[in-house]
Amino acid sequence: MGRGGWVRAALSSRSFMFGLILSLLFLGAALLSFFWTPFDVARLTISERLQLPSAMHWFGTDHFGRDIFSMIMVGARTSIAVALVAVGIGMVMGVPLGLAAAARAGRLLDEIIMRGNDLVFAFPALLIAIMITAVFGASAVNAIIAIGIFNIPVFARLTRGAALSLWKRDYVMSARVAGKGAARISAEHILPNIANLLIVQGTIQFSLGILAEAGLSYVGLGAQPPTPSWGRMLADAQTLISLAPHIAIFPGLAIVFTVLGLNLMGDGLRDLFDPRLRRARA
Q1: 140 domain-assigned
Q2: Residue 181 phi/psi, 5° resolution?
């Protein structure tokens, strides 16, 4: 599909466009928060605590009198940064491992890599974060490390599975006959042909990373005060939800719509990259 055809298909995909709009909305809020927010998120105004949504405070205020809309904007920056770096760690380390395992399928290196992946999969991101914070303390950086470590075997397994089928293709056989080594074949012939699959998986893992960051912050293992975080906002709101439900509703909706947008965009990308799926849904 040419560039023009791909753009037309993207514009006609309701799933992709709706997901893209939601994702860009929260990305824009995160970028805008570097330069402007309606109120200073560090300002505590006890006299304005637990105010309902109004023309001044669009989403109301929390138990410290902080503007919830401003905190969600800054919290978007935290969630996106943590998830983006964590997914980057997973891809940078997992993809080469998967390519190496596929190139040495059935051999010792393949067994070592895959059994190592199984070992990491035995420890969820939350448990990894607990072990890391027990040694180094709770912080956004340690949350990134925990989520990133969990993402490594995800990309390694996906890459290995996709690459294995390509090693039997004629053009790969021709490259081997031409004297190209396994590393060069992986870089020049295997990786470009599975890049679309990795992009789609990266989008999905990005949404899961935002959920993981919110979960870690909720239990106190993510971003620490005074840095706003959607998960921390939910944790602070749980004892006041019957008195002021809006302080839990709005950060919860931010998480829901961000994850929904990324998942819809990933689903749309999968359809765009695979014409068979697009025709099946038509």
Answers
A1: yes
A2: -80, 170
